[in-house]
Design brief:
mainly alpha; disordered N terminus
Length: 224
């Protein structure tokens, strides 16, 4: 039996069997352990980092598109879309261990990129900003704080785009690509991010996935 994930049309006999076989590969096992260590490190580091970011003074970007849009609070729709997306991708990729861990590692790398860009590009929210207090992010990354200055780039947009990149089924891929656009529009309407934050996000998502593919070509062979 090959140790790599099969193509999307071939479903594993069971989730347990798929993970048992995949974890017999010592390289994949090390990749899995390393990825979860990275997740724990990010969760531990993020609250103090974002406290520092929130306390500093940033600058405003000129954004003609946001200036022309009346802000509308779409938080409940944004949350609904996000959590449906998370549940969908987890239910889909749990059958494919290598794609699952590759996608999680890509998300971690994207988040590391975002921590760097947020640090290097200090910004203040647009004057029309309406708060988006994400319960998941507040609990795991923000230490219960309401963070408003983690702006460049949009992590929500990049995350949904990564979901599309790592999905194994073409229809599911396009489902996430469409949702990425819908989410991006809602984020802009609520003025959560500048237009530049949203437009840049897919490129960072692509970079994260390609880095994983270069570092772990066997494990990520079906990611794109």
């Amino acid at each position: 039996m090959p140790q790599s994930d099969t193509i999307a049309s071939q479903q594993p006999n069971s989730i347990k069997a798929a993970w048992t076989v995949a974890l017999q590969d010592k390289r994949f096992l090390r990749m899995t352990i390393g990825t979860f260590i990275l997740v724990v490190a990010m969760v531990a580091f993020s609250p103090s980092f974002f406290s520092t970011i929130e306390a500093r003074q940033g600058k405003f970007w000129n954004d003609p598109l946001l200036d022309a849009i009346t802000p509308i609070n779409l938080a409940q729709y944004i949350y609904t879309l996000l959590y449906i997306s998370i549940i969908t991708i987890l239910a889909h990729l749990v059958n494919y261990p290598r794609a699952f861990i590759s996608g999680l590692l890509a998300y971690c790398l994207m988040t590391c990129m975002r921590l760097l860009t947020v640090y290097l590009v200090p910004l203040e929210p647009h004057p029309g900003f309406l708060p988006l207090s994400d319960p998941f992010l507040n609990f795991f990354f923000y230490g219960g704080q309401d963070i408003t200055k983690d702006l460049f780039f949009s992590g929500h947009t990049a995350t949904l785009f990564i979901f599309g990149l790592v999905a194994k089924n073409r229809k599911i891929k396009w489902f996430f690509y469409v949702l990425t656009v819908v989410l991006a529009v809602m984020i802009l309407v609520q003025h959560v991010h500048y237009t530049y934050d949203v437009l840049a996000a897919p490129f960072f998502a692509l970079a994260a996935v390609y880095i994983v593919k270069m570092l772990f070509p066997k494990e990520a062979e079906a990611t794109l």
